Amino acid sequence: MIKFSTGMSYLLLGMVNLPTKGLKRFVILPIFFNLLVFIGLFYLFYHYLFPLSNYYINQLPSWLSFLSTIFMIFFILSCFLFFLTTFTIVFNLIAAPFNGILAERAQYLLRNQMIPELTYSEITVRTIKRQIQFIGYFLPRFIGMCFLFFIPFIHPFFPFIWFAFNSWILSMQYQDYAMDNNLVDFKTMRQLMRQNKEESFGFGFLINGISFIPILNIVSMPAGVIGGVLMFCDRHSQKLPPILIKKQ
């Protein structure tokens, strides 16, 4: 539990460092992208999810009608987590080049470490390529989770399963910006996460959790990027060949 709590603390450190001089202009765009995520979620809930949940409940047999409220809660929660994951992943992919630059600046300003010398255009190209690798990892698992949704006896547990899945995926995304900037390949990144799985899960768990908290959810993207940088510098930078980390 100590490592789990330590992982959570990195997101809090990310939030604390949001106003850092030199970072603020790189924080604005991720906040804008995160705002779009929740505007989209609100639109889906209002126009589609509530009518769909009523239709779903009406399909229950009469002898289960007394459970309609419970089923509706689980259905809405499951759908919320599903759309939250989908929107977050999509907008993180769109925001990836900006988040990569934010990660580079955070590493320099907060830990006085410089990434291998790359131009912003090179960082952008590498980040997009990395996100394609991430999609190859994420998509089969996402499809598998979608199949679980249609297994009736799993419904009561599905929100918890999905929350855990989304926590791990978010942790991977936000840790990966720093690792990619420091030329850590995708396979090695996954190995480092497994070696540090309790902290990694705690980090993603809190990112996922604050998605339900107004105002805080808007800053979760830049805070997650900065927190991922701090975790990388504290946990992994010394494990890499010296050529990959240059100190000022």
TrEMBL record:
InterPro entries: CysZ-like, CysZ/EI24
GO molecular function: high-affinity sulfate:proton symporter activity
Gene Ontology CC, one term: plasma membrane
GO biological process: cysteine biosynthetic process; sulfate assimilation
Cellular localization per UniProt: Membrane
Organism: Legionella busanensis
NCBIfam families: PRK04949.1 (NF003433)
Alphabetical list of PANTHER family matching this protein: SULFATE TRANSPORTER CYSZ (PTHR37468:SF1)
Primary subcellular site in the record, as a coarse category: membrane
Membrane association type: Multi-pass membrane protein
UniProt KW Cytoplasm keyword: no
Top-level lineage group: Bacteria
Protein name (Swiss-Prot/TrEMBL): Putative sulfate transport protein CysZ
Pfam families: EI24
TM helices/strands, residue ranges: 26-46, 66-95, 134-154, 200-232
Keywords from the UniProt entry: Amino-acid biosynthesis, Cell inner membrane, Cell membrane, Cysteine biosynthesis, Membrane, Sulfate transport, Transmembrane, Transmembrane helix, Transport
